Amino acid sequence: MAHALSMYAVPAAIGAVAVVLLLGLANMLRGGSPSTSQKLMRWRVVLQLVAIVVIMATIWAMGR
Asked: What parts of the sequence cross the membrane (predicted)?
């Protein structure tokens, strides 16, 4: 289980955070809608929480 988490879930979670962050930056740089920026920021925060949980679960599973 730890191997699957470390090989697939952790990179996917980090990648999702990076994609939403880049979308938010692109929206701000081109002068997009402030409500879209806020929505993307909220998604980024949620995805960061998910990434932290996945990383902690991976660390826990590797210790077993």
From this structure: 6-25, 45-63
> pTM value?
0.87
Token pair of 5 as six digits: 């988490």
CB atoms within 10 A of CB 20: 20
What is the per-residue pLDDT across 38-62, written as a single tens digit (0 to 9) for each?
999 999 999 999 999 999 999 999 9
* Domain ranges, ordered by start, for the chain: 1-63
Give the DSSP letter of residue 17.
H
* Distance between start and end Cα atoms, the chain: 10
Query: 33 falls in which pLDDT band (50, 70, 90)?
Result: very high
Q: Do residues 8 and 39 touch, judged by C-beta distance below 8 A? A: no
Under a CB-based contact definition with an 8 Å cutoff, are residues 55 and 5 in contact?
A: no
